[in-house]
């Protein structure tokens, strides 16, 4: 079988992809400060819905980058997002990614409290020195738990990336975060995922590299 | 701010999600043997496009499960998919997940041959004892490289999960695999991803557990 492959050098694939995305977005106007993030999420998912779904609090991207430049750590609710975040680049800024989902004490605490491991992992994150960027790509319970911590004054995130995916309490958890008074990037609706969470973190990181 | 959260116990969230997915699929008829995989991918992405996009060669799901039961290994092109696959369950069947993308010899070989690390990692996979399930969630070049190996008689995969995502050569690479005479599960079009690759592997694994 013969197929037509476009001849693109390995180092040019991403640039070429971004050109195609920009072309297909056409007249759809992205806010300049958010365009990097939106385009990288579309690059990761091939899903143009994210041109509409992603909601940014004012200055969220710049706040996130400022935090990363200052060595901010990232807490995520999935090992997949942790795997996808560019940890080398983060480390060169002084940061690190943490995911407590597989920790035994988190599993134990979740069982004791009748909650999810994701929610329990947010409690464990309180022990980290802040401020922290939270990248929630899977569990709405993590987002709700984080919101409650914020309401109780226990934590003040540098940025909340709220992109859990799914069908049970995902939409209300995100709407909750959209009412919060911290910098946020939220994928409105059901869509999101650990790949989206990682893509947003990387878009923030790569934007720093380009300066 | 007050929002309405549905009261669902942690252990019931997945079952409840699957109920919602089944309800929303409504009259859309999924082939019985493929339904587990399709529903898990929708569960992972909240994207009902996959009810249409996923193309299965006849008996692909059963062939994949038979291979896994026999201790088949999985090779993937992303650390994220590796992170997302249920490695405990795979190990209990005798299998293991391999991702060679970060290996120094793969980076070196890619540079020397002017190809992608993904393609070079497929060459490295030839050293594994077969048969292998390939779960390609990111790079179309990996899928093309694998197809060429098959054409040359170098490899005979137990199953190809061909779900790279993106804009450059993704569609032709998948169409190529749809013409191959091995068991495959392919996400037609641009969509896919490491999360989709992992979800398909897990749907195969969980189907074995239920027997």
UniProtKB/TrEMBL annotation, chains A, B:
InterPro entries: Cbl_synth_CobH/CbiC, CobH/CbiC_sf. Gene3D superfamilies: Cobalamin biosynthesis CobH/CbiC, precorrin-8X methylmutase. SUPFAM superfamilies: Precorrin-8X methylmutase CbiC/CobH (SSF63965). Keywords: Cobalamin biosynthesis, Isomerase. It holds the Pfam family CbiC. It comes from the Bacteria. Residues 12-206 form the Cobalamin biosynthesis precorrin-8X methylmutase CobH/CbiC domain. GO terms for molecular function: precorrin-8X methylmutase activity. The keyword Isomerase applies. GO terms for biological process: cobalamin biosynthetic process. Pathway: Cofactor biosynthesis; adenosylcobalamin biosynthesis. Belongs to the CobH/CbiC family. This is Precorrin-8X methylmutase. The lineage of its organism: Bacteria, Bacillati, Bacillota, Clostridia, Eubacteriales.
């Amino acid at each position: 079988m013969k197929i037509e492959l476009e001849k693109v050098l390995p180092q040019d694939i991403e640039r070429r992809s971004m050109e195609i995305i920009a072309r297909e977005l056409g007249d759809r106007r992205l806010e300049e400060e958010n365009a990097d993030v939106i385009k990288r999420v579309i690059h990761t998912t091939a899903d143009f819905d994210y041109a509409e779904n992603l909601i940014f609090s004012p200055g969220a991207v710049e706040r996130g980058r400022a935090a990363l430049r200052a060595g901010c750590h990232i807490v995520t609710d999935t090992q997949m997002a942790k795997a996808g975040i560019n940890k080398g680049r983060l480390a060169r800024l002084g940061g690190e990614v943490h995911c407590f989902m597989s920790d035994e004490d988190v599993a134990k605490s979740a069982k004791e409290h009748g909650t999810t491991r994701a929610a329990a992992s947010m409690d464990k994150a309180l022990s980290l020195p802040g401020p922290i960027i939270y990248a929630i790509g899977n569990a709405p319970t993590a987002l709700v738990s984080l919101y409650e911590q914020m309401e109780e004054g226990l934590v003040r995130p540098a940025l909340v990336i709220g992109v859990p995916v799914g069908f049970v309490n995902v939409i209300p958890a995100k709407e909750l975060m959209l009412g919060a008074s911290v910098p946020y990037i939220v994928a409105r609706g059901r869509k999101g995922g650990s790949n989206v969470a990682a893509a947003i973190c990387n878009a923030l990181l790569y934007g720093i590299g380009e300066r």
